[in-house]
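Take a sample.
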Amino acid sequence: MVKVKFYGKLRHIFGEEMEIKGISTVGELINALERKSDEVKRIKEHLLFSINGRQVKSGESIKEGEDVAVFLPPTGG
């Protein structure tokens, strides 16, 4: 089981954090989030991920106990 923290708009969708079973890569995490929210399907290409404070891509492995975060890039104007 992996504990995932959410930031920004994603926190409104999923809450502050969620435990997800059966994932071992960021790509599998994306798939799990898509199953939980149609909104993720629309914004998934913009999602950013970090593991233990290091930004990672979708093929990166996730191990139990690592600090996983999901967020969107900051916007401004």
Observations:
- The longest helix spans residues 26-36.
- The mean pLDDT is 93.
